[in-house]
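Protein data:
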Amino acid sequence: MKILSADQIKLVDSFTAQHEPISSINLMERAAAACFKRLIKLIKPDEIITIACGMGNNGGDGLAIARMLLEQGFECNVFVIHHSTKLSDDTEINYKRLKEKYPNRLVDVNSVEELKVKTNKESKVLIDALLGTGINKPVEGLLAEVIDFLNAYYLRIYSIDVPSGLHIDSSSEENKHIIHSSLTFTFQLPKLAFLFSENQNYVPEFEILDIGLDPQGISEQNTAHYFITKKLISSLLKKRNKFSHKGTYGHALLIAGSKGKSGSAIIASKACMRSGTGLFTLHSTKETNSALLHHLPEAMSSEDSSPDFISEVGKLENYEAIAFGPGAGLQEETQTVLKKILNYYAGKLVLDADGLNILSENKTWLNFLPASAILTPHPKEFDRLTQNHSNDFERFATLKQFVIKHSCIVILKGAHSAVAMPDGHVFFNSSGNAGLAKAGSGDGLTGIILGLLSRGYTPPQAALIGTYLHGHAADLCLKKKGMESILITDVIEQLPKAFQKLGA
């Protein structure tokens, strides 16, 4: 699913109007109807609804939604905030429609004091239709005052298309007046700003509503940004051949663990073997390998001569894929092992945790990454690899430059992990939940990707499937475990079901 800019969305709207054909007012009506259908499932019949409308087309959406709710017997108070001199053409049509049918429900507001006086004190639900996707500068004046009042007054806010005041294509850090939406109903496609942590107070949750924009109009828009869908991941999955054997699905090597850090290696090992690899070997310390035998008898192990950390590595050419890093430590000898891998191994490689920490201390080694190596940093790890960033949009720009420069894949982990490809295309993950914000989750992701690589997927495929699968398995844990109690071991145990639900 594409992620488009505000300008591109306007072009798709125009394309739809010209080629369906459909008038712009009827397209607005269709968008409003999609919102209405969701809202009536979320709002109780006895709740009093406040709808705040601006003077642009977003306000027109709100006016149309108000009319539909009133027609169904909901109690609505509709405020049109006069922050400019003129209503947009389609908004004026919906303004007249509402005023003709429900004149007593429509209130024109010219000051925040007027809004405060006329707000129904019993109303606890707000529909935000003040500003849409076209805003690109900080909100000022009357709208700023209105937004601040609404944020302070309402605990449940449903935003139409975008929380009012939020910039969808650039950072909003300079804008202090943005609606704190509870749930945003966005039209047809996700917006880039929704996927960054800096906007979590404004867009904690969003739903994509299909409003029937022309697929050809969308396809004609060029973009490097995408939203991962279940359909995409299912299309990438491979079936296991009836006459295959363990050798068919590769041999994976995990180099991980050190004294007191066996758990990271065990988690990654389990995730790898649950992800389809034919053969698996862990190279680690005696302590970690002993734990592996207890937890995963199906695995093979290679014992390092050092009892406390990784100091050596054997032949590398026997493995289809290698992962390095979880719990490995930062000892000089361990760093030398990574240097050897970068110098002599040209196959599929995953670097995580201490693998990334070692790289951040030896940045020239980035030039020796094998083609399409997969790095899995969280934001702080990525900043250590590159530079400090003041906001997510700035970090995002660096991310795209980094993968192009080093011909690698970076999975920048987060609520919507960004999978950046060597050509600069970025795919944002749609699965997962905050239950993954616990120790070991990254180790599990590393293991999943390693297993997929060994099993025969290309690095781009493994990165996309692994990221989505990791989140999808966590989502399957919710009913039984709940977000607070999910452990990465629970997630790994849900991998078989996650594969099945994706069609594998």
Remarks:
- The chain has a mean pLDDT of 97.
- The chain is about 40% helix and 15% strand.
